[in-house]
Design a protein that fits this description.
Layout: E1 3-8, E2 29-30, E3 34-35, H1 37-46, E4 51-55, H2 61-67, E5 81-85, H3 95-100, H4 103-108, E6 113-118, E7 121-123, H5 127-136, E8 141-147, E9 157-161, E10 167-172, E11 181-190, H6 191-199, H7 209-217, E12 223-227, E13 232-234, H8 238-247, E14 277-278, E15 283-289, E16 294-295, E17 298-304, E18 309-310, E19 315-317, E20 320-321, E21 326-327, E22 332-334, E23 336-338, E24 343-344, E25 349-352, E26 370-372, E27 377-378, E28 383-385, E29 389-390, E30 403-404, E31 409-410
Length: 415
Amino acid sequence: METLALILAGGRGSRLDILSEKRVKPSVPFAGKFRIIDFALSNCSNSGIYDVAILTQYLPLSLNEHIGAGKPWDMDRRDSHITLLQPHESWYNGTADSIRKNMHILYQSRAKYVLILSGDHIYKMDYRKLIDFHKEHNAELTIACKVVPLEEASRFGIMEADKNSKVERFVEKPKEPKSDLASMGIYVFNREKLIEILESNDDIKDLDFGMHIIPSLIGDGDVYAYKFFDYWKDVGTYDSYLEANLELIETVDKIQLDMYDPNWKIYTRSEEMPAVKIGSKAVIRQALLSNGSIIAGEVYRSVISPGVVVHPTAVVKNSVILNNTVIEANAHIENAIIDKNCVIGENAVIGDFDNIPNKERPDLLKSGITVLGKGIKIPKNFRVGKNVRIFSGVKFDKFEDGKIESGETLVKEKR
């Protein structure tokens, strides 16, 4: 095969905090029945790239179970395969170091090109167009990039390119960016060049593409920028995660990511469950409802994952509810992300009180979102404020007043 795809899927995703407490970021559920990594895998499949290796590290079990032999993405055929690579000598110390520690995959491959992808972005891209651009420009490295607002450019690796798209300068997260051309963390290398540069940098322990590899190639090598103009989002924060989910339920004229395109399907490993059931008194406005869910209450502008049950008179607004969570009668949930297997008791309220930023991590929660970890059971009549973080394993028997004020963080008590 001409192209080998390497998907970097080992990052913890610490800004997703509770959602990545027990799983790696690419394995976080998204858009109801999918996982974040499904987008990179589906892009590979739709682009005809079936030689894929996934580099895992942090809490890989759920990701490994989800991917399996790669059947949902048509990667279990005789002429294709998917490989899971885990650290075997020492922990990965950088994006390029993760590949350097798996050099055998490059040595064994007969591919001419290596496509390096992040496993934690939401987008649809035909990688064939990117690779054709790489060939046409006789590039050694091509970087997929997106024009971003200049005020947001300091969050990204920023490139400056000439009129022929040749990269003249690259700065990782500049304080005062002079360009709005942001790296998407998607690279095409000539395989031999990638091997050469990884071998020549064996003295740098924390070898990183943005900090080391790309700057070293600019000037001495042929590095080009490929502009991508369609939807792309890094869902690395609570705000961006909730926003990206809710963007999928916008009206047709506003939706930016079409999940219903028959010519570019997003594939996933999906549990067999019955069809959605909607009660006689249910009210639903702008929602994604997944297989196996039962809606007898009210759902407004929310994403409902497989197996979720919303009982009569319960209300869910502007929220993402993950698998098999039960919302009991007359409970009220607003601006929340609720992980799998939770129970929200009768008459309970999530998202109550004033909007006070999270006291422990205001950098993570300040816009009013409340996040509950896996398996949380909110008691009957209990009230939870805004910007609250509740980690898995928390018990509520000590809260005699039946409430948690806005901005609080609850963690499981150590025995």
